[in-house]
Amino acid sequence: MIITLLTFFLFQSDSIQTVIVESSAQLFRGAFSISAAADGRLFVIDQSTNTLNEISKDNTVAKTIGGKGWGNEEFDLPTDVASSFLLNIFVVDANNRRVQRYDKQLNYAQSYDEQVLAKLSGRFQPISAATSIQGELFILEKDGKRVIVIDQRGIYHREIGTFNETGGKLIDPKDIDISSANEVCVLDRHSVKIYDSFGNYLRIIALSPQEAWKTISISGTSMIVTSSSRIEIISINTGKRITILPGSIMGAQVTETFSDAVVQDSTLIILTPTTLYRCSFPE
After folding, report:
1. CA 44, CA 60: separation in Å to the nearest integer?
2. Mean pLDDT score of the chain
3. 72: CATH
4. pLDDT above 90 coverage of the chain, percent
5. Cα(272)–Cα(55) distance, rounded to whole angstroms?
6. Is residue 4 predicted with pLDDT exceeding 70?
7. 42 Cβ partners below 8 Å, 6+ apart?
8. What global pTM score does this model have?
């Protein structure tokens, strides 16, 4: 089978745009990751407190679970949160080397660790997770530089990104998300590598090598990649890129580094270590 590779050198056509802060709230001590749920809620990982926080539409904390530990509702250096279309909430609990699943009320439901994933080869060191509309769980694993796919029954199914095919092998993976077309998008150092849901490598989107990219999220046909000082909104269809810098955010003085960013209901939500900003979505 011949795989057609398409590379967008997006950093060559920069377009810095202004966004306007519609509301903001200082809620955290060390916010690290954010996920937008289908029902309008936001879920934020605060690494400084080892907690998962449910944020309502009015920018208040509706519920918090966690605290440092190894119990079912405790974490040790959580690195990611993902909310599924069925409103399961997944927390990547890095130092405990597991992924925890909670229901929509944040009640504990299940753990994915080396005991559950008995067929998994090598050490299990998860760093990020995402879900598909079919209910599969995709776990980005650091040590093996691979994506582990868990099926709807919670059973290990396959791996992505480990083969030595041209360009498809993961080198330094950071984050993962799934597009509405069910494509698996992995932020891998200075690029996004894209696979189909079966693990076939499709194409690559190149990013600026001057940035230390750390997160990726996808909403519709928009891909949002974030570094400490830069947010880029990329059209998956056309490759058009919009850049957001701290100085291009109007209505608030953003002095902290960026932690993460997502789009929800045509609103760009920017997360810094202490503050959540809801901003106008740039056109």
Report:
1. 12
2. 91
3. 2.120.10.30
4. 75
5. 15
6. no
7. 34, 35, 36, 54, 55, 262, 264, 269, 276
8. 0.92
Total structural domains in the chain?
1
Mean of the pLDDT values across residues 154-177? 85
Residue 84 confidence (pLDDT): 83
Domain that holds residue 93: 28-226
The three-state DSSP-derived secondary structure of the chain is: CCCCCCEEEHHHCCCECCEEEEEEEECCCCEEEEEECCCCCEEEEECCCCEEEEECCCCCEEEEEECECCCCCCECCEEEEEECCCCCEEEEECCCCEEEEECCCCCEEEEECCCCCCCCCCCCCEEEEEECCCCCEEEEECCCCEEEEECCCCCEEEEECCCCCCCCCCCCEEEEEECCCCCEEEEECCEEEEECCCCCEEEEEECCCCCCCCEEEEECCEEEEECCCCEEEEECCCCCEEEECHHHEECCCCCCCCCEEEEECCEEEEECCCEEEEEECCC
Per-residue pLDDT band at 165 (split at 50, 70, 90): low
Does any domain span residue 47? yes
**pLDDT above 70 for 279:** yes
On whether residue 67 sits in a domain, the answer given is yes
> Tokens in use for 170?
């993961």
